[in-house]
Structure formats: C-alpha cells, structure tokens
Amino acid sequence: MKQKYLIFKNPEKNELIIREFAELDKERFSLLCEEAYDDEMIEAAIKEGVNTLISKLRTQNMYPIGHYVKKIAESVTTMYVSGDKQSVELFFNDNDLLIKNQEPDKDFDAPADESSDLDELLDEDVDDDYANKNGLEKFQSPVKIADGDSTEIDEKG
Known about the structure:
The chain has helices at 39-48, 50-57, 66-82, 94-100, 114-122, 128-131, and strands at 2-10, 15-25, 28-38, 87-93. 35% of the residues lie in helices and 24% in strands. The longest helix has 17 residues, at 66-82. The protein has a domain at 2-100. It is elongated. The two termini are 66 Å apart. The protein has a 4-stranded antiparallel beta sheet. By secondary structure, it is an alpha+beta fold. Residues 102-127 are annotated as: Disordered.
C-alpha cells in the first residue's frame, strides 16, 4: 500500500497538522486521518528527544509504523529547527519497505558441496544399535480380531 503524509504548520492557530493519505484506488490518495498538535507541545517534545516526539506524534487515530514515524519526526524536527519549511510531503510504499528489509538468514549455512552431502545420505552403512532393534515386536494393535472372524472380505456375486 502506498501512503502519503502531508505535514504543515498552521501559524494562525499555532499548531502543526499532519494528514495521512493512503492509495485506496489506483493513483488516487484518500484522506485517512488528520491530527493537529500544539506548537508548544511539539517544541518541548523536540527538546526532550526523538522518542518523546514520536510518542507525541502517535495518536489513537494515527499510529504510523516505526520506519515511517521516524521519517515524520525527522521532518517535523527540521521544520521547527530551520523554520523555513512550511510544508513537507512524505511518500511511502510498503512494498519498498518489505523488499529492502529482507536480509539473508544469518543462522542458515548453505551447504558448500551438495553432491557430497547426498552421497552420505545414500550410504548403506547402518549403525549396529539400530540394525538389531525391531520396533514391531512389542507392537499391539488397538483393534482386536476374534479367532472365529475372518479377516478376508467375503465376495458376494
């Protein structure tokens, strides 16, 4: 899913506004949520650090994932520190995020030479411990057949 965040200041009301859009139809973004934040609260959160700012930006209605909210927080901080940007648009595509974050499994060791591994599997040497054991000797069937009953199916013609 593609998402867009529009971040801008409203100087008349001394607030920061973040609008969240999503591509619900092909090439058309729909407004999902709009949140307004008090300028003083945002400035205080910036001074306390990025984690505080992130916790203030996330609300019950708008809760972007970690990667997105970090970029939003960076943009908000830049807007307030530099003072020259009035609005910012951020675009995100979930597909790009999934492809970039796929890393090879570090615990998985691919075999260097598969042919030698296959030959070892086909080796007919069996350990003596397993060769002399017969697991079926002690097996008891859960179904009891009476001595007089036939185990063959009678054919009727």
